[in-house]
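A common beginner's mistake is to predict each chain separately and then try to dock the pieces by hand. The better habit, illustrated here, is to supply every component at once so that their relative placement is modeled jointly.
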Amino acid sequence: MIRLVSLLLLLLAAGCTPYRLIPAGKVEFTDHGSVETPIDWNWRPIDTVHTWTLDGPNLQEMLFHLGIEDGKTLMNALDVESGFNPLLVWFGKVPDEVSFRFHKRMTEHEIMDLFTASMSKITESPVVASGLMPADLGGHQGFRFDYAFVGKDEVRRRGFAVGAVVKDKLYLIHYVGTALYHYDRNRADAERVAASFVFAGKD
Amino acid sequence: MISRRTFSAGLLACLGGCATHHESGPSSDLPDIGAGYRPDPKSDEAGLWLKLDKVEQNQRRSPGRIRDKPINDLVQDMVCRLAGAYCPDLRPYVIRVPAFNATCAPNGMISIWSGLLLRCHSESQLAAVLGHEIGHYLKRHSLQRLRNSRELDDFAAFFQFQLQGPAAGLIRGLSQDITQASKSMFSRDHEREADALGLALMADAGYAPAACADIWRHIKAEDAAGGESERFDFFLSTHPATTERIDNLDELARRRPPAARPAPDRLNAALGPLRRSFMADEINQGHFKRTDNLLTRLIGDGIDPGGALFYRGELYRRRNRDGDEAIALGNYHDACETADPPAEAFRGVGTIRWRRGETELAREYFRRYLRVAPNADDGDMIRKYLSGA
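With all components supplied together, the output reads:
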């Protein structure tokens, strides 16, 4: 009986785990494009973002923000205005909260700033970006930069981001990991994934 | 409603609780802490200190701690000026948290948040807050609150478990309300005492006592700008209403004679470039109206106007409502004209001109950006704009 209950609990726990294996090879993102990965990853969608990890999201993570439209936030969860009580808004009692949104006329500096402001909200810690430079994403002129922050868990993390605005939509891929070990360990794998991005319809 | 046996059991429980409290000490009328004081290892106070010593170990090593020497030297010196003989017992830490707060733990650990430093216009204003926190330490308010809370919880527990009958639920609810209100009132009395003691400490050290009320006026103005009217809850508010604090502090300041030897004002020199990083953290909060109020006040008072104008421009550019781009551009231009403009202000003008299609004007400002910051880490991107790509 104890074995049966244990098995049921294990199955329940496995069912709750939202991750799925992404085998090495070509990975398609519906309507947006595809990448080639040299290694296996674990995939989990969060909000509108595809997230990949190897050892767990707190250790290293690769994130894909694909096709962010004009006026949208990097994640739906960052759109604070959408959560305002309509009655309060009607009476002009709007909370003092503003979302950081992508706009199609943004320059590369503004997109990097949008990213750091959004990430600061997500991590609840100051995120600092540096080294903004021109780069390609999927054959389109874009940009890349590095970033770093110390999370609420007091762990120092580093990351890099590559992005481009194509047909008025923002495509941004970034990789983050603990500065002490995980960032360096799989950075090359992450770079290869980002470099392999192909926009949908370009195959 | 309550049987004799149940009442007896409850009474015994209360008396048992009281006996424990006598061992640990009273919750009020404690003697002030002495210089070099260490609690009796067997006491509840020692347990409290032990817990906080562990918190302090983490804080000391925390990557979120600001280790910049000038600001740490300043706050250490200020603590010594304010606390006198207690100086060796108090250890200040500057922490990067973009919110208005400071705390002093009963073991002498003082935490000063970056959001507080950003809001202080003078050393006297910072001394007002530090004096208040040292006041809590000297009066051992944390220990008093711990003991008071335990006594009140015992009182509530008696009603929670011993009462029976139709009115028991009502009485339990009432006992919880009374407990909560008592805790809050106790805490508010401590805040009033710390306000008065803090003002006395900072005025004795030569700081301007009027600064105590000034800093609360800033906070009140920010709250009002953010649409937060002063909310005072008799049951839940652990601090007196801000208006009451301002009135009391103004009255106390009026009674103080002018300082014989006024203290220096070294805050702006010590904060230096840190203030701009605090402004960057502040605009990341996404509280547009509060931050606008703060930055506008800094600009008006001449506190790093170059930095404040630039970040006000950033605030409006990010919000991006109708007319915000023009306001942002105006603030960037004004920042460029100050005596100490941030290099990013030139880039800000260039960025907005660029997206407006005013390419040549944009390039002029990008060139100025590179002249001010020749080693900028985004130089490659700027040179791409300049090369016509």
